[in-house]
Specification:
This protein is of the alpha+beta class. Helix content is about 15%, strand content about 30%. It has helices at about 5-20, 260-270, 275-290, 340-360; strands spanning about 25, 30-35, 40, 45-50, 55, 60-65, 70-75, 80, 85-95, 115-130, 140-145, 145-150, 155-160, 165-175, 180-185, 190-195, 195-205, 250-255, 300-305, 310. A hairpin with a 3-residue loop joins strand 11 (about 140-145) and strand 12. Helix 2 (about 260-270) packs antiparallel against helix 3 (about 275-290).
Length: about 375
């Protein structure tokens, strides 16, 4: 069949809205339940109280104090619960426009309606997340100063604390679904965190890069040469920089989540989340069948030579680590650990655009063959 120029133009105009929707745009983050007062910081650092139903986009920070908990609902259908004493930033959140995305009804989605790129940075504290089945082209990552968790459709937790001595503690737990973790200081690739497992990491915290300080004193005039016949004053050579001792290697352990850890997640989902209560009930059932937490360490009192006594509490017992294995199905478009979010956005944009163009391409053959 031969398509006339007029009909071809009309057909092309009909495809324009589809092509326009193929571009990644800023996704929306809606505030759900807020327990006590929390705070929102815009891109310029302006602070405001965070209230339920508030909508914001990427580039904003959320902070809770010791008594605050906040529920964030993303327009790709995922939910993020911000625990007390947590600071996070929505670094990147882009998604392809879809008529299935309805403001105020994000949690009604049974799966992600369109490809998206999500990168949340946990600067300190803990988050509990629930992610619907993601589009194969999507990327969902939770980044911390010492490592990154790549999320597929799942329930998960990520917690980070700076120990104040150049090291940090990172815990990544997979309650349901699939998570892969990368520790920046480790010489290994991604680690699979399977359902019911918790990955615990002690690793160096990278120091921020400082700008070089200007040399004290007057700068020499450009283009001037030292006077001939003069010799530099002895002892003026700059001292060699003192190298810092190498950072200790990270300590990584993988162990099953115990009943207390799973029970805490179930309680949080049931009390500070607007998710269907069946989600919390499922995790509660897992907690009822999980191994108990290790018993608390008993303080030990010793008598010193001078007759005084000293009481110490041993470190808590650490379960033996499971073997660390790579993921069997690596994420196609995960960002972090070597790939920037900007590169991921560009890659997904190009992939989606090619898919749409292929779906809307008309038959170029004038014979219709």
């Amino acid at each position: 069949m031969c398509i006339s120029p007029r009909n071809f133009c009309l057909l092309a105009l009909g495809f324009l809205p589809v092509l326009a929707f193929a571009a990644l745009t800023n996704g929306k983050v809606q505030v759900g339940i807020v327990k006590d007062e929390a705070y929102l910081y815009d891109k310029q650092g302006k602070k405001e109280p965070l209230k339920s139903a508030r909508v914001f986009q990427e580039g904003f920070r959320v902070e809770t104090t010791a008594q605050n908990t906040v529920e964030l609902i993303l327009s790709n259908g995922s939910t993020l619960i911000v625990s007390p004493d947590t600071l996070l930033e929505v670094k990147t959140f882009r998604q392809v426009v879809s008529n299935l995305i309805v403001e105020g009804e994000y949690q009604k989605l049974d799966k992600e309606p369109s490809p998206s790129i999500t990168e949340i940075e946990v600067i300190r504290g803990k988050v509990i997340g629930e992610v619907r089945k993601l589009n194969p082209q999507s990327s969902y990552t939770i980044k911390t100063p010492v490592g990154v968790a790549r999320i597929r459709g799942t329930i998960y937790t990520v917690e980070f604390a700076d120990n104040g001595k150049g090291t940090g503690t990172l815990n990544i737990a997979c309650v349901r679904g699939s998570v892969e973790a990368t520790v920046f200081a480790a010489n290994t690739g991604p680690i699979a965190v399977k359902p019911g497992d918790n990955l615990s990491v002690q690793a160096p915290v990278p120091k921020p890069v400082e700008a070089p300080k200007p040399t004290e004193g007057t700068k020499p005039t450009e283009g001037t040469k030292p006077t001939e016949g003069t010799t530099p004053t002895e002892g003026t050579a700059p001292a060699a920089p003192v190298e810092a001792p190498p950072a200790p290697p990270p300590v990584i352990t993988l162990a099953p989540m115990n009943s207390a850890q799973l029970g805490s997640v179930a309680t949080t989902l049931a009390t500070v989340s607007s998710l269907d209560q069946g989600v919390a009930a499922t995790v509660k059932n897992m907690a009822d069948n999980a191994p108990p937490p290790p018993p608390p360490a008993t303080p030990v009192t010793t008598t010193n030579a001078d007759g005084t006594t000293t009481t110490t509490t041993p470190a808590p017992e650490i379960p033996p680590s499971k073997p660390l294995t790579p993921p069997t199905t690596p994420t196609n478009t995960s960002s972090g650990g070597g790939t920037s979010a900007a590169d991921t956005v560009q890659k997904v944009t190009e992939t989606v655009q090619k898919t749409v163009e292929k779906q809307t391409q008309t038959n170029p053959s004038p014979t219709g063959g």
